[in-house]
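Let us work through a complete example step by step.
Step 1: write down the sequence.
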Amino acid sequence: MAKGQKNQAQFIKITQIGSPIGRQTYQRDTLKGLKLNKLHRVSILADTPAIRGMINKVQHLVKTEQVDTK
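Step 2: predict the structure and record it as tokens.
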């Protein structure tokens, strides 16, 4: 870790804005992996490459925001 950097975890707030009805199975499974199952549910998860990849697969069904960890 570089000098002067703080060890703060980054988080993402994910809100489901689209329905999984009529979507492909992998998209429904991805929403379950993001801990989302109904419209307007919110999940706060760590900002990792794996989570970013999952969000990318269902970007038309979710809204994302950075969470400030102060």
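Step 3: interpret the result. The mean pLDDT is 90.
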